Amino acid sequence: MAVLSTPHPPQCCFFKLAPELRDSIYEYALTECKPLLCTAGDATGSPRLLIQYRFGNTEAKREANQLRYVCRQLRYETQTLSLRYNEIHFHGIENFENFLLSSIPNLQKRFRNIIIFDDHESLKRSYTITQLIHRSMSPVLYGFCSRNSKACVVIRHSRRFTEGAWLNIFCKLRETLREDMGDGLESIFDFETAELIRDGALSLRRKLYRRYQRPFLNNLRIVPTADYPKTSGHWNAAQLAEAKRLFEEGC
């Protein structure tokens, strides 16, 4: 006698698409127009990624990647993709360190663009730009950047500078660490100021090379201010564009 088996429900036609096409759809669906805020992970090391937006007159948050609540297969295929497709924000270097220490290496490989806001008020100890340059600030952070060359980490310090002063300090640090300003200094500053920045960067670089042999990683960068500061009202469009580019790239 024939035995009737319970029929399996037909698989959703979406999962019959080629993996490459599904990946393109996921990238489109999970890429947000604003950066995601990463909070502390749960017991498994999975982070909570929050989309920040305004609802009426108040700040509101909702969790990113709602696709993972649709079905088990979507959860499996998309659960960490938001890390790859979006800029991720952390408040405080220690929060990023704690996330790295509690997460698995495969999860860390998903990161692409990370911004860490060094909010001194929220830290147990205060880090300085000098400590970052010396590589004594965070071995955990330095190790992450060494292992994950596709990830770019920019630390923005919660300092305040007078108008124009931030760019002078920034360019000195940039020339010290990257040596890539070249004639770009003259496009922003007058000749005398540009020469002073070059001389200061050369002196600082010599001191660093004598004391610290570890290389300056290309994917670990700093910005001496958290927000894009005011710029001189006398700058032209080219100067403003260059200042904005430097701020976004970091030193």
Automatic annotation (TrEMBL):
InterPro entries: AN11006-like. PANTHER family: F-BOX DOMAIN-CONTAINING PROTEIN (PTHR42085:SF1). This is Uncharacterized protein. It comes from Bimuria novae-zelandiae CBS 107.79.
